Amino acid sequence: MDELIYKFKDIITKSNQIVAFTGAGLSSESGIPTYRGVGGLWTKYDPSKCANIDYFKHNPSLYWNFFKDVRYPAISKARPNPAHYYLVDLEKQGKLKCVITQNIDGLHQMAGQSNVIELHGNTRKIVCINCRQVYSMDEIYRRLDKVLPPKCNCGGILKPDVVFFGESLPTRAIIDAEKAAKNCDTFLVLGSSLVVYPAAQIPIIAKENGAILVIVNMDTTPLDRVADLVIHKPASHVLSAIKK
Questions:
Q1: Cβ–Cβ under 8 Å, residues 206 and 19
Q2: Is 0.90 topped by the overall pTM?
Q3: Which end of the chain is more exposed for a tag (fewer CB within 10 A), N or C?
Q4: CATH code 3.30.1600.10 region(s) in the chain
Q5: SS (HEC) of 66-80
Q6: What is the full per-residue pLDDT of the chain (244 aa) written as tens digits?
Q7: In 3D, which of 229, 204, 199, 205 has the Cα closest to residue 217?
Q8: Which residues of the chain does CATH 3.40.50.1220 include?
């Protein structure tokens, strides 16, 4: 393990254009349940109903019950972990150019990260699908004891500003992420299983354009075989060790 840490630290030291790509494994280290794998949310809840845009439009109450009982309690209590803060430090040093995240919890911004590309949106922001008025996650949660599903002041349906199944990823985010991947010298994958496309294509773009690819994830990923360095440990533990 020590040898891998030293190799990782050497890569960081020699890099000047780093891009970090983060997934649910990073948020799980802050207490937010993952979606897939053993004990993941999708082993207990049906994503074709809880997170599908067509089903949401038909019956938004199911999602909002899921939000009230599961998502809000976890996200509202979560705080950034050492991996989030290490990435902020790299940004302050001028080494880290941006974070591309699949996570929707806003923990990177809470830690102080300034350049974050959110591929799947941010659940802390609630938007009316009719008039586009924006509400905070906390404000809408307080309404749920009185009315569910919650409604906008205009009477429209409220939806978290996240990408549901059946929706496309935001075009601007994809363009920015691919540009960052093409121009970095090191691409760090932290806590992502790399099975959700098109997001999982972005590390491939970085590798094809000459970047060093480092993967830190508890489980194996489809890109382990092409990565320059793979560490199967929690990202917060690994990055804390590098900092020391």
A1: yes
A2: yes
A3: C
A4: 33-77+122-162
A5: HHHHHHHHHHHHCCC
A6: 689 999 999 999 999 999 999 999 999 999 998 776 666 776 777 778 888 999 999 999 999 999 999 899 999 999 999 999 999 999 999 999 999 999 999 999 999 999 999 999 999 999 999 999 999 999 999 999 888 999 999 999 999 999 998 999 999 999 999 999 999 999 999 999 888 888 889 999 999 999 999 999 999 999 999 999 999 999 999 999 988 7
A7: 229
A8: 1-31+80-120+169-244
Residue 187 β-bridge partners: 19, 213
Q: What is the rounded CA–CA span in Å between residue 21 and residue 177?
A: 9
120 is catalytic: yes
Q: Please give the CATH number for the structural domain made up of 33-77+122-162.
A: 3.30.1600.10
63 token code pair: 């999602």
Q: What one-letter code names the amino acid at 46?
A: D
Q: What is the CATH number of domain 1-31+80-120+169-244?
A: 3.40.50.1220
Determine the longest span between alpha carbons in the chain, in angstroms: 59
CA distance linking residue 137 with residue 160, whole number of Å: 8
